[in-house]
Amino acid sequence: MTLGEMLLELRKKQHLSQEEAAEKLKVTRQTISKWETNQSTPDFDKIIPICELYQISSEELLTGVKKEEKEKKPSQKNTKNVKFLILGIFLYFMSVICVILGEETLRLNDGIVVSIFLGLCAIATCCVIYYGVNLPKKEEYTKKQTPQEKLKNSVIDITAIAFCVVYLIISFATMAWHITWILWIIYAAVEEIIKTGFELKGEQHEK
Fold first, then answer.
1. pLDDT in tens, 123-178
2. Which of 136, 121, 135, 113 lies closest to 167, judged by CA?
3. Ranges of H-type helices in 43-181
4. Which residue, of 18, 44, 63, is where some domain finishes?
5. Lowest-confidence pick of 47-61, 81-95, 128-142, 155-169
6. Shared domain check, 111 and 80
7. 202 and 110 in one domain?
8. What DSSP character marks residue 2?
9. Three-state secondary-structure class, residue 159
10. Is pLDDT above 60 for 6?
11. What b/e string do you get for 147-169 counting C-beta neighbours within 10 Å, with b at 16 or more?
């Protein structure tokens, strides 16, 4: 990757237009364009401002060698926590299956069937809540985020909390745990819509 290509990639990651980058670096837009198309290279006194703007080290900028970013650690941690979310969803399915098998096949007492159902739902809910509580802390992944990315994550966090509250209220009020888990499928769709909306907004901003 050439220096120009790297500068172009870094600017897009920060969701900055050439005009905005030029204003922050106190150069013209044409200068930014020339840097990114390898028609010229930044002056020595612009290296530090560029590194500060794009939040990278001078070594990475000059050599093009990317170091392992600390942000990978939270994502790995989050991957482990996803197992609890998957387990929770699996237990919700199992609770419904147990009700069907208990009543139709095993002919168990209604009290036993309900106890098994509520027990599995309770464990599943704990798994989902554990997943939400153990998401990476904000300070672990916001250090190099743009204002737009911070806003997007805040909106997603608020949406998740709202869905969790609604889910628990409806579930405990109706005891229809075998149905209310569908809210999490709806949440997943809403989250993707939010992400897509912010991405499209970022692309329009760059243009």
1. 877 777 777 666 655 544 445 567 777 788 888 888 888 887 787 788 777 877 67
2. 121
3. 47-54, 58-63, 72-100, 110-133, 138-141, 147-174, 177-180
4. 63
5. 128-142
6. yes
7. yes
8. -
9. helix
10. yes
11. eebeebbeebeeebeebbeebee
